[in-house]
Amino acid sequence: MSDTSLRDAEQLAEQVVRDCGLTLPVDVLGLAQSNGILVSAKPAAAMGVSGMLLRSGDDFAIGYATHVRNEGFQRFSIAHELGHFYLPGHPEHIFSAGAVHESRAGFASGDPIELQADHFAAGLLMPSALFTKEAAKYSDGFTAIEHLAEICKTSLTASAIRYSEITDAALAIVVSSRSSVEYCFLSPAMRRMKGLNFLKKGSVLPRESLTRTFNQTSENISLGRRVDDSTDLQLWFRCDDEIDASEEVIGLGDYGKTLTVITADADDGDGADEGDKPWGQPQFRYR
Ligand SMILES: [Zn+2]
Predict the structure, then answer these.
(1) Which H/E stretch holds residue 91?
(2) Is the Cα dihedral 139, 145, 150, 152 positive or negative?
(3) Full-model pTM
(4) 201 CA distance to ligand 1 centroid (A)?
(5) Which of 50, 73, 206, 269 lies in the 20 to 30 Å Cα band around 254?
(6) What are the structural domains of the chain?
(7) Exposed, middle or buried, 172 (CB in 10 Å: 0-12/13-18/19+)?
(8) What's the CA-to-centroid distance between 89 and ligand 1, angstroms?
(9) pLDDT tens digits along 65-78
(10) Cis peptide before 25 (omega within 30 of 0)
């Protein structure tokens, strides 16, 4: 799946937001209703199913799982199914084998159709124009992310990933469990840091990092504790220069993972060309 088609999916969602005059938080239920789509909560039939789209003739219905009691997760699930409804070619593709399409959280590595629907969901719930305007009201880092999650009614993780795409700050989002990195997203300014080493999935958290220490106590995660401290970008990314930064760490509760936001203090790393994406396209998670 090319970056362009993922970007297209996002832009189609943003166009829907504009055409329908939607505001934050985007009313996904209202949008479904205006398309004659019935939406209902469904107990999860199978583990891992986050939502489904059903078709009967010209009629569509969405079911969304409630086993994760998190409004952001549920809204993202509904928005993902709306993606299958709106995106060109999706209904034909997903209903080629039957009348029910099931979506699964956490699949993000694979199916391009699912990835497109995820990007549609992100664009729908966090349209860049409205999202950027809100983000500008808060100071860089976790403060902005937390407010954006409240305003958009999206999960902290989805909001953090989206924020990393639009912020001018040099910032990294790291989701980890125990001592290893689950995934990492860098803002454009961060990607321009000289000599920066990207944290791949499965790589080990820096030994002296606050996040590594935090993750050693499981209650920190289950109770959603938060801590922060100063750090250095070299410690995390082995970049050429020592650059002061802050490290904000948040336990994600029953999700069992930790969100870390690393924000550089100084405005470094200018001069490199914009728009190169050495780390590929972000893949959205549900929560
Ligand atoms: Zn799907």
Answers:
(1) helix 90-94
(2) positive
(3) 0.85
(4) 23
(5) 206
(6) 3-125 (1.10.10), 170-264 (3.30.450)
(7) buried
(8) 13
(9) 887 778 998 999 99
(10) yes
